[in-house]
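Contributing: when you submit paired examples, paste them exactly as shown. First protein:
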Amino acid sequence: MPNIKSAIKRVEVNRKKNLRNRMVKSAMRTTLKKYESAVAAGTADAQALSAAQGAVDRAATKGVIHKNAANRKKARLAKKLNKAAE
């Protein structure tokens, strides 16, 4: 544990940011897993795709994932829905 006041504050701030990032990433992963299971069951639709893409966008907006990674994930989600529709 640090002794310097500013270092103590950095530890606390980093802990809070880490908790927030984990929560956002966990929520995104949960939504993606629900979407994946819907696609596998054949019940996925445009609304499910929109919800999944929204979760990815929220994570990117908050800086939890990179914007290019978010775009890649969204493209793959749309591709899976189109493939399942065929």
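Second protein:
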Amino acid sequence: MTDLPLDPIAIDVGSLVQRTVASLYSHLVTRQTGRAVRMAIESQLSEAGRSTLSLVDLSEVTILDFSCADEVVAKLIQAHAPGQGARDAFFVFRGVTEPHRDQIEVVLERHGLLAVAETEPGRFELLGIRSDAEARAWSTVEERGLVGHEEVDTLLEDGEARQALETLVGRHVIFRSPISGRYHALSRLVDRLM
């Protein structure tokens, strides 16, 4: 039995825009466009298993406005937050460059959300609202890639950071295996599963 009961899904937003929206191909500039793309992503998620890891690739999107960032990033994360009734989904947003970053940060902060973003090839960041303890805990798991349950007390010496680790699991920016109890950085899971 695997330690990673996640179905990987790769979502190329640029390609979705071309297929689902009759507008400028690489521009996400209206709420209707963002909603259409989010619905296409939701359709792909509905065909997957109960738990998914989704790599949402924004690399081919040249313009992303606030309303589309709200639809494609914030509402997607909200729909799959624990307790929302939707399937259990973890997201990594690839290709988040300077033209996208401000819009994504603003909508995440407005909704009190967090997201893992690849801002340069191989460089992952935590975007959105987070405490200092959450930032420390996320960085520890991100640097190591995998943290065993037995290592937590040694790696995260203060109780606030250990509690923050559990909060990050609940916020779906770190995956804790229900099988082994190990904590996985989403960036490493993307590399491993995709």
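If you have annotations for the second protein, write them as plain sentences, like these:
The chain has a mean pLDDT of 88.
The chain has eight helices and ten strands.
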